[in-house]
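Proteins fold reproducibly. Consider a sample protein:
=====
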Amino acid sequence: MPAEALKPTPPEVPGGSPATKDVGESESINAWPEATAEAEFLASAQATGETVKPPAAVTVAVEVESSPLPALDDLVPRIPADVREMLDDLFRVKFVSVRRISKQALAHSPAKPT
């Protein structure tokens, strides 16, 4: 049996969607369009009267606290002793400095149910 006969074929989709496109190893179906393809799209959109606007730039205002940071020696006692012991046993954690991080760095997506 020839090797080509064993090659899987993509499902047939009406309209010739990307599922039927032969994609090479260096090419991706979700690849960003080349500059010429983008220019052609914009030109055809303008010719048909469509208005194509680039997405608005998102600017995020970051609050910067300027108050002085507390001393490390003042913060470590605020961590419960059993937690400090567990951190030391599991990770050999040593508290070495106090740093300020942005609120965005603390934001996280909700936990997914397992």
